[in-house]
Design brief:
Layout lengths: L3 H19 L10 E7 L4 E6 L4 E7 L4 E6 L5 E6 L7 E6 L4 E7 L6 E7 L2 E6 L4 E6 L4 E7 L5 E6 L5 E6 L4 E9 L29 E9 L4 E6 L5 E6 L4 E6 L4 E6 L6 E6 L5 E6 L4 E6 L4 E7 L7 E3 L5 E6 L4 E6 L4 E6 L5 E8 L2
Antiparallel strand pairs: 1-2, 1-28, 2-3, 4-5, 5-6, 6-7, 8-9, 9-10, 10-11, 12-13, 13-14, 14-15, 16-17, 17-18, 18-19, 20-21, 21-22, 22-23, 24-25, 25-26, 26-27
Length: 361
């Protein structure tokens, strides 16, 4: 007959192993290439293995996350904490350790939204401040800010050479092209005479970095222009206008609208070119379909039924698939870009929105 001590040991062992088995499985390592999905409902970033389409880890972010981008080395993710233009925080996630890092406080640059990572730096819009800015992870400082003077400066694109920045200004129904320019050498102050090549007191020293500035060109587009993309050849910017249901095509070199496509995309949220430049995909928060346009003919190719509304669109780096965040349906739809058909869904958390790729270098 077992002793009371033996019974106590057995009961303790059963309790220990029961608790052990009830604990969640340890997160898997982050794949070299990861799909990042923001969940607005869960206030979390999901790290998804694109090979298995399974979530390998989740990390907490701030309230009301909207957009996400990864650093060039694929080891860090940045998340805009939007708050309808009121918040001023960027959440930061260590993608290797799969845990949050200290937030970036943007101070008076309220309403961060659009994000991109170019030239080793994080570029962002600040909707509440009507501005765009740049954060340097190496120094931990914001090293550049420029106001747009436009309402709801929302999404952002930076050219690889960092000489141009494009934004959509939703409530002003405009697109901004910000262009870095070189300035001539600074001359002497008015009334001062001296050698023409000698810098004035306090001016840049000889042989120093050239003087530069930024110019803005504001281009009127359709009402509610928000989601936009630049064609793979860099020649055109297309923006979907949620209130008009149209698409404005901007010639970047000419800085003007050259075509308006009556695409019937009311409620449009995001617009993305496929990597080969053949198609343009448009999501709508109010529609059940993903609209596919032929980029060359500027005509509709197909409407793909994906759910009850959608937000973020992301192309797979090999160009074979698109991922679409179906916010009302709580899943990410997978679209085969050869057949233009939905082939599956990813459960990455409630109300998915922003999407990004992270590739470890």
């Amino acid at each position: 007959m077992p002793s009371r001590c033996t019974n106590f040991f057995l009961a303790g062992a059963v309790l220990f192993f029961g608790l052990f088995l009830s604990q969640p499985a340890v997160a898997q390592p982050t794949p070299r290439q990861s799909l990042l999905v923001l969940s607005k409902h869960d206030h979390a970033l999901a790290i998804v293995d694109p090979a298995t389409l399974k979530v390998v880890a989740r990390a907490a972010v701030g309230q009301d996350p909207h957009e996400v981008i990864a650093s060039s080395d694929g080891k860090t993710a940045y998340v805009s904490i939007y708050g309808g233009g009121a918040f001023h925080i960027l959440s930061v996630i260590d993608l290797i350790a799969q845990k949050p890092l200290p937030d970036i406080d943007l101070g008076a640059l309220n309403g961060p939204h659009g994000l991109t990572f170019v030239g080793g730096k994080l570029w962002f819009t600040a909707e509440g401040a009507k501005a765009v800015g740049r954060y340097d992870p190496a120094t931990g400082k914001i090293d550049w800010i420029m106001g747009t003077g436009q309402n709801r400066t929302h999404m952002i694109y930076v050219t690889p050479d960092q000489k141009q920045v494009y934004t959509t200004n939703v409530s002003s129904a405009t697109v901004s092209i910000l262009e870095r320019i070189k300035l001539p050498p600074m001359g002497p102050p008015p009334g001062m005479h001296g050698a023409p090549n000698r810098p004035p007191p306090g001016g840049p020293p000889p042989g120093g970095p050239p003087r530069t500035d930024w110019n803005q060109t504001v281009i009127p587009v359709g009402r509610g222009g928000e989601g936009f993309d630049v064609s793979p050849d860099g020649h055109e910017l297309w923006t979907a206008n949620a209130q008009d249901g149209t698409v404005s095509v901007v010639n970047i070199a000419g800085k003007k609208v050259v075509a308006t496509i009556h695409a019937n995309v009311l409620g449009a949220n995001r617009l993305k070119f496929t990597l080969d430049g053949r198609f343009v995909l448009i999501s709508s928060l109010d529609g059940a379909d993903l609209v596919v346009l032929n980029a060359a003919t500027r005509t509709e190719v197909k409407r793909i039924r994906i759910g009850h509304g959608a937000a973020g669109i992301l192309m797979q780096p090999d160009g074979s698939r698109a991922f679409v965040a179906c916010t009302p349906d709580n899943y990410v739809a997978i679209v085969d870009l050869k057949t233009l058909a939905v082939t599956g869904h990813i459960d990455a958390g409630g109300e998915p929105d922003g999407l990004a790729w992270a590739t470890q270098q």
